UniProtKB/TrEMBL annotation, chain A:
An MF annotation (GO) of this entry: ATP binding
InterPro entries listed in its UniProt record: ABC_AA/LPS_Transport (IPR051120), ABC_transporter-like_ATP-bd (IPR003439), ABC_transptr_urea_ATP-bd_UrtD (IPR017781), P-loop_NTPase (IPR027417)
Full protein name: ABC transporter ATP-binding protein
This protein's GO CC annotations: plasma membrane
Biological source species: Sandarakinorhabdus glacialis
TrEMBL record, chain B:
Lineage: Bacteria, Pseudomonadati, Pseudomonadota, Alphaproteobacteria, Sphingomonadales
Main localisation: membrane
Annotated organism of origin: Sandarakinorhabdus glacialis
Single GO MF descriptor: branched-chain amino acid transmembrane transporter activity
GO terms for cellular component: plasma membrane
Stated name of the protein: Urea ABC transporter permease subunit UrtC
PANTHER family: HIGH-AFFINITY BRANCHED-CHAIN AMINO ACID TRANSPORT SYSTEM PERMEASE (PTHR30482), SLR1201 PROTEIN (PTHR30482:SF4)
Database matches in NCBIfam families: urea_trans_UrtC
TrEMBL record, chain C:
Sorted UniProt keywords: Amino-acid transport, Cell membrane, Membrane, Transmembrane, Transmembrane helix, Transport
Taxon lineage: Bacteria, Pseudomonadati, Pseudomonadota, Alphaproteobacteria, Sphingomonadales
BP terms from Gene Ontology: amino acid transport
Listed InterPro entries: ABC_transp_permease (IPR001851), ABC_UrtB_bac (IPR017779), BCAA_transport_permease (IPR052157)
Name assigned to this protein: Branched-chain amino acid ABC transporter permease
Topological category with respect to the lipid bilayer: Multi-pass membrane protein
Length: 250, 342, 294
C-alpha cells in the first residue's frame, strides 16, 4: 500500500493507555503537505497526547503513525525529530540561560551530531537562517537578551521561531497563544499563516477567535476519539460539537 | 556569556604569579599549596558538570582515586627487581604480582591510565545511567553509592590494594627522586602547568558550541532532545571530561601527599569536593579554584587547632552557602563589580 | 539448602530495615522531589532515643515504650528540618541534597560530642532472646521482631493513606500539586506532615538498628546508601515499588553473601541497580504520568 504522494502524516487508529485511562482511543487523522490543521476539543480530549504520540514521547499501545509513509511509532524521539517533525510545547520552555540567538541556534543546527559541537561560533548558513527567523518573529532587536528575561508573548514567539528554525516539514504547535492578549494573538495567527506552504502545521488551541483567524480546516476530538472534521463554520454548526463543549452527555 | 580571551589572560596571569611561589613559601606551605592546586584541577571538572551541565556527582572521589592509584601502582613497581612484589603484598602473603598490576610497570601505560581509566569508567557509567534518561537526584544518589562501593572494595581487597592504609612510601617517579631537594619545586611547577592547561581547556570547552549545548541541556533536556539533539551525549562527555580531570588531580595529589588511600576517595571526601565549588561559584572556573584553595587552607588551619570544630564548620558552610549564596563568591564579587561600574 | 534458606530469611530481615529507612525518603521524594541526606541521622536519633528510654524506663517491656519515643522524637526533628531548611529549598532538589548533607555532618558531630564516638549499647530484652526453628533453620527472635515492625508500619501507612483525611490530602497533592492547591489544600502543610511522618519511621528503624548493634554517631550511614538505592529502584512516589525494591535489594545483598564477602555484595547491589535501570528506568512500579517535565 503506497500512500498518496502529498499525504505527509497519517495517524492510524492510535490508542494510548495511561494505566487504564484511554487518552487516545482508536484515533485517526491525515494531513497533507503544506496544510494547516487545527485540532480542538474540550480538556482531556487527548490533544496533547496526540502531539506526544506523534513526536514519540508516548508510545501507542495500538495503531501506527506514518510520516511520509514510514511507520515512526517505534523510533526514538531524536530520530523522529531528525525526520522533520518538531513540536512547540504548551508550557513555555525556552532555554532560560541562553540568549535568544543561541536558542534559535540550537534549533537551527544543521548537523546535530554531538561531535560537531567542538567548535566556536555559528556556521554561516545557520547564522543566516537565524537572522531571517529573528526578523520573522519580531525579536531581531533582542537577539543577545537571555531568553529567560523575555516577556511571555515574546517567549511564545521565540518558541515558534525555534520550531521553524529546525526547518522541520511538520510543525506541532500546542496552544501557541496561551496567555496572550488579542493583539498578540492576531500577530501569532499572521505568523503561523505565513509559515504554511513551507511547512505543514498542526495547531492545538481552544481559543475560537484565534482558530477563526487561522482560516484552516478543523478536527474536533472528544475523549480520545475523532468527533468530526470540517471548516470552522461547519464545526460551529455541528450539534455534536456543541454538545461536547457544553458538557452534556450523549 | 563566557569570554574566552579574558579567561586565557586571567589563567595565564594567575599561573605566572603563582609560578614564583617556590621562591617565597617554605617547603611545608609549598607542599600544601601544591596539593590544593591539584585538587583545584578536580574542581574545574565539577564546574563543567554541575555548574554548566546541572549534573550533581557525589562520586568524584572515585575518579580521583582511580587516577591516584594508577600512578601510585606505577611508583610502587618502579624500584622493584623482576619477580619482586611490593612490600604490602609480601605482608599479605602474595608471591606473584596480580596480572592487572603488571601493565602499570610501564610508565607510558601508567600515565595514560591516570586519565583514561577514570574517563572510560565515567563514560560507561554515565552512558548506562543518562542513556536511560535517569538523571538529577537519582544520578546523585547512584554516584554516592558508587563512591561507597569503590572505597569498600579498596579496603576489602587488602592484599592487592594496600587496604585501609592505601599505597604509600614512594621513592621515585619517572626518574625524579621524590626525596631529592628539587622534587617539591619541580612537582609544584608541573602541577601548576597542568592546572593552567586544564583551566584553559575547560574554558575553551565552555565557550565552544559544546558549552552552549551543555547549558541548553541543563535548562531543558527534553526541549533539546525534541529539537533533534542527542542530549545524553553532552552530559556523558562532560562527565567523562570531569572524571579525567579528577584522575589527573588524584595522580598529582598522590605525588604531593605521598599516599593515596580509601579515606580520600569515599563518600565524605567526594561530597566535600562539591562544597569547594559551591563556595567559589558553581559556574565560575576562577571561583572554583579560589573556593578549593580557601576551603582547604581553612580546613587545614581548623583541623590542627580545633579538630572537633571541623564538621560543624563544614556542615554550616554547606547549609549557608547553598541556601543564601547559591552563586558562591564569584557571584558576590560580580555583583560588587556591577555596582562599582554603575 | 539450609544456608540458602537462612540467607533468604536474612534477606527479608535486612529488607525490613532498608524499607523502614527508605519509606520516609520515598514518601517525601514522591511528594516534594527532594531527598533528605540527613535521613540517616534520623535513624541515629531514633537509636539514641531508644538508648535513653531504656535508661529511664524500667521493666521487661520498656522496648515497647522506646518505639513511640523514637518515632515522635525523630518526627519532631524532621518537622524542624522541614520548616528551617527543606521548605526554603523545595524548588532546588540538588541544593537540598547538599544542604541536608551539611546538616547530617552537624548532627553526627553533635552526637559525638554528646554520647562519644564509641557508641552505646542497647540490650535487647529477654523476650527477644532465642528464636524459633523452622525447616531446620534458626530464626532469631530479634530479626522476626524487625520484620514484624516493618509489616506493622507498612500496614499502618497503608491505612493512613487510604482511610484518613490526611491520607486523602497526601494523595491529592501527590497526584497534582497545582490542582490540589487550587482546590484550597494547604500543600505546604501536607509536605510538612509527610516529611515528619517519614523521619518518624526512620526513628523506628533506628530502634531496630539499636537491637542489632551499638548505636554510634554514624550508625545511620551504613543503611542509608542502600536506602537511597531502594528509592532509585522503587519508582517515583510508589509505596508498592519501594517495598518491592527493598525486598529485591535485601535478597540480592544477602544471597550474594553466600559466595562473596559483604563488601563485594555491596558492589553487586549497585551493579544490580544499574542493570535494573537498563530494563526499567522508570522503577519497579511505573506511574505513567502526564506531568510535563520540559
Amino acid at each position: 500500500m503506497s500512500p498518496l504522494p502529498d499525504r505527509l502524516l497519517e495517524v492510524d487508529g492510535v490508542t494510548v493507555d495511561y494505566d487504564g485511562f484511554k487518552a487516545l482511543d482508536g484515533f485517526s487523522l491525515t494531513l497533507d503537505a503544506g496544510e494547516i490543521r487545527v485540532v480542538i476539543g474540550p480538556n482531556g480530549a487527548g490533544k496533547s497526547t496526540l502531539c506526544d504520540t506523534i513526536i514519540g514521547r508516548v508510545r501507542p499501545s495500538a495503531g501506527r503513525v506514518l510520516f511520509r509513509g514510514q511507520d515512526i511509532s517505534k523510533l526514538p524521539e531524536h530520530r523522529i525529530a531528525g525526520l522533520g517533525i518538531c513540536r512547540k510545547f504548551q508550557a513555555p520552555g525556552v532555554l532560560a540561560s541562553l540568549s535568544v540567538a543561541d536558542n534559535l541556534g540550537i534549533a537551527a543546527a544543521i548537523d546535530k551530531r554531538w561531535w560537531r559541537s567542538f567548535g566556536f561560533g555559528t556556521p554561516p548558513a545557520e547564522a543566516e537562517r537565524i537572522a531571517v527567523i529573528l526578523e520573522r518573529i519580531g525579536l531581531a532587536g533582542r537577539r543577545d537578551v537571555l531568553a529567560g528575561t523575555l516577556a511571555h508573548g515574546e517567549k511564545q514567539w521565540l518558541e515558534i521561531g525555534m520550531v521553524v528554525a529546525t526547518e522541520a516539514e511538520l510543525l506541532l504547535l500546542d496552544e501557541p497563544t496561551a496567555g496572550m492578549g488579542p493583539a498578540e494573538t492576531t500577530r501569532t495567527a499572521e505568523l503561523i499563516r505565513s509559515l504554511a506552504g513551507d511547512h505543514s502545521i498542526i495547531v492545538i488551541d481552544h481559543d475560537m477567535a484565534f482558530v477563526e483567524q487561522l482560516a484552516a480546516r478543523v478536527t474536533v476530538m472528544h475523549q480520545g476519539q475523532f468527533l468530526m472534521q470540517g471548516s470552522i463554520a461547519e464545526v460551529r454548526a455541528d450539534a455534536r460539537v456543541a454538545e461536547v463543549y457544553l458538557g452534556r452527555a450523549k | 556569556m563566557f569570554r574566552l580571551k579574558r579567561q586565557f589572560v586571567v589563567a595565564a596571569g594567575v599561573a605566572g604569579v603563582a609560578a614564583f611561589a617556590p621562591f617565597v613559601l617554605g617547603g611545608y606551605d609549598l607542599n600544601l599549596l601544591a596539593r590544593f592546586l591539584a585538587l583545584s584541577l578536580l574542581a574545574l571538572g565539577i564546574v563543567l558538570t554541575w555548574g554548566h551541565g546541572g549534573i550533581l556527582s557525589l562520586g568524584q572521589g572515585v575518579f580521583f582515586g582511580l587516577g591516584g592509584y594508577a600512578l601510585a601502582m606505577h611508583m610502587k613497581l618502579t624500584p622493584l627487581a623482576p619477580g619482586e612484589v611490593p612490600d604490602f603484598m609480601m605482608l599479605g602473603g602474595l608471591e606473584a604480582l596480580p596480572a592487572w598490576w603488571v601493565p602499570f610497570g610501564n610508565p607510558g601505560f601508567a600515565l595514560l591510565a591516570v586519565v583514561l581509566v577514570p574517563g572510560i569508567v565515567a563514560a560507561l557509567f554515565a552512558w548506562s545511567v543518562f542513556g536511560r534518561r535517569v538523571g538529577g537526584t537519582y544520578f546523585a544518589l547512584i554516584t554516592q553509592a558508587l563512591a561507597l562501593a569503590f572505597a569498600t572494595l579498596l579496603v576489602s581487597a587488602q592484599e592487592t590494594t594496600g587496604g585501609f592504609n592505601g599505597l604509600t612510601d614512594f621513592q621515585v617517579v619517572l626518574g625524579l627522586d621524590l626525596n631529592g631537594a628539587e622534587a617539591g619545586r619541580t612537582l609544584y611547577w608541573v602541577t601548576l602547568l597542568v592546572l593552567a592547561l586544564g583551566w584553559a581547556g575547560v574554558a575553551a570547552l565552555l565557550a565552544s558550541r559544546f558549552g552552549t549545548m551543555l547549558r541548553a541541556v541543563r535548562d531543558g533536556e527534553n526541549r533539546v532532545r525534541f529539537l533533534g539533539h542527542d542530549a545524553a551525549a553532552y552530559k556523558i562527555i562532560a562527565f567523562a571530561v570531569a572524571a579525567m580531570l579528577a584522575g589527573a588531580a588524584g595522580a598529582l595529589f598522590t605525588l604531593h601527599a605521598g599516599v593515596i588511600s580509601p579515606a580520600m576517595v569515599g563518600v565524605v571526601p567526594s561530597i566535600e569536593m562539591v562544597i569547594w565549588v559551591a563556595i567559589g561559584g558553581r559556574t565560575s572556573l576562577a571561583g572554583a579554584i579560589a573556593g578549593t584553595l580557601a576551603v582547604n587552607f581553612a580546613r587545614d588551619a581548623i583541623s590542627s587547632a580545633f579538630p572537633d570544630l571541623r564538621p560543624y564548620a563544614l556542615g554550616l558552610l554547606f547549609i549557608l552557602v547553598v541556601t543564601l549564596l547559591p552563586g558562591g563568591l564569584a557571584e558576590l564579587l560580580a555583583a560588587r563589580f556591577r555596582k562599582v561600574a554603575r | 539448602m539450609e544456608l540458602l534458606l537462612g540467607q533468604v530469611f536474612n534477606g527479608f530481615s535486612v529488607a525490613s530495615l532498608y524499607l523502614l529507612a527508605a519509606l520516609g525518603l520515598a514518601l517525601s521524594f514522591g511528594l516534594m522531589r527532594v531527598i533528605n541526606m540527613a535521613h540517616g541521622e534520623m535513624l541515629m536519633i531514633g537509636g539514641y532515643l531508644a538508648y535513653l528510654t531504656l535508661q529511664v524506663v524500667p521493666g521487661p517491656w520498656r522496648l515497647v515504650a522506646a518505639l513511640p519515643v523514637a518515632f515522635v522524637g525523630a518526627a519532631l526533628f524532621g518537622a524542624l528540618i522541614h520548616v528551617v531548611l527543606i521548605r526554603r529549598l523545595s524548588a532546588r532538589p540538588l541544593d537540598t541534597l547538599l544542604a541536608t548533607w551539611g546538616l547530617s555532618l552537624i548532627l553526627q558531630q553533635g552526637a559525638r560530642s554528646l554520647f562519644g564516638a564509641i557508641g552505646v549499647e542497647v540490650t535487647a530484652p529477654a523476650w527477644l532472646d532465642g528464636g524459633i526453628s523452622v525447616l531446620g533453620i534458626e530464626l532469631p527472635a530479634v530479626r522476626l521482631f524487625i520484620i514484624g515492625v516493618a509489616i506493622a508500619v507498612l500496614a499502618g501507612l497503608a491505612l493512613l493513606l487510604s482511610r484518613t483525611r490526611i491520607g486523602l490530602l497526601v494523595r491529592a497533592v501527590n497526584q497534582d500539586r497545582m490542582m490540589a492547591a487550587a482546590t484550597g489544600i494547604d500543600a505546604g502543610r501536607v509536605d510538612l506532615v509527610v516529611f515528619a511522618l517519614g523521619t518518624g519511621i526512620a526513628g523506628l528503624a533506628g530502634v531496630m538498628l539499636a537491637l542489632l548493634g551499638p548505636v554510634t554517631p554514624t550508625v545511620g550511614q551504613s543503611y542509608i546508601v542502600p536506602a537511597f538505592l531502594v528509592v532509585v529502584m522503587g519508582g517515583l512516589g510508589s509505596i508498592r515499588g519501594t517495598v518491592a525494591a527493598a525486598v529485591i535489594l535485601g535478597l540480592v545483598g544477602s544471597l550474594a553473601q553466600i559466595s562473596v564477602d559483604a563488601s563485594v555484595a555491596q558492589v553487586l547491589m549497585l551493579v544490580f541497580v544499574i542493570l535494573f535501570i537498563q530494563i526499567r528506568p522508570e522503577g519497579v512500579v511505573a506511574n505513567k504520568s502526564r506531568a510535563l517535565d520540559v
